[in-house]
């Protein structure tokens, strides 16, 4: 009986780890405020000072891991995003991005598509100093 139990546990563990998606595109880095910053590796070597910065309020978030985290991950996966941080406590998202590839509408559509219950307000855009 013990060999069968061991084999089942081992198989389940291997299945679990083999099904986990390893996203090589994003690198997660902890920041001081307790939030998590996702930075695509392809952009990590570039100078983020050359990117525009969008800040906006996200309404409708109820928790950090179930709401803020998925939104942050979706924003970070957009092509042209250098970094994305969603601060659940302040309901604030800050995204550094290539303004040639993305616009404010891209961020609003992405946030609203995550769960259908989130809204974006107070959108501000800071262009890089050239």
Tags for this entry?
130 residues; alpha+beta; Alpha-Beta Plaits; 6-stranded antiparallel beta sheet; 4 helices; elongated
Q: Can you put this structure into words, describing what you see?
A:
- It is a single chain.
- It is built from four helices and six strands.
- The protein is 37% helix and 30% strand.
- The N and C termini lie far apart (70 Å).
- The protein has a single domain, classed as Alpha-Beta Plaits.
- It has a six-stranded antiparallel sheet.
- Residues 15-45 have low confidence and may be disordered.
- It is of the alpha+beta class and 130 residues long.
CATH architecture descriptor text: 2-Layer Sandwich
Count of helices?
4
Q: How much helix, percentage-wise, in residues? A: 25-40%
Category from helices, strands and their pairing: alpha+beta
Number of domains: 1
- Strands in their spatial order, largest beta sheet: 1-2-4-5-3-6
* Mean of residue pLDDT values: 77
As for the CATH topology, it is Alpha-Beta Plaits
- Proportion of residues in β-strands: 25-35%
Element pattern in H and E:
HEEHEHEEHE
Enumerate the spans where pLDDT stays under 50 for 5 or more consecutive residues.
15-45
Per CATH, the class reads: Alpha Beta
What would you call the shape?
elongated
């Amino acid at each position: 009986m013990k060999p069968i139990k061991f084999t089942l546990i081992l198989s389940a563990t291997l299945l679990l780890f083999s099904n986990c998606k390893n996203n090589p595109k994003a690198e997660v880095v902890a920041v001081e405020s307790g939030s998590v910053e996702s930075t695509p590796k392809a952009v990590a070597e570039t100078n983020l000072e050359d990117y525009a910065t969008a800040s906006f309020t996200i309404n409708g978030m109820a928790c950090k891991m179930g709401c803020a985290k998925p939104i942050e991950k979706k924003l970070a996966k957009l092509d042209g995003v250098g970094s994305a941080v969603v601060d659940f406590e302040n309901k604030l998202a800050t995204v550094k991005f290539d303004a040639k590839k993305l616009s404010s509408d891209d961020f609003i559509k992405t946030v609203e598509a995550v769960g259908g219950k989130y809204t974006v307000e107070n959108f501000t855009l800071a262009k890089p100093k050239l």
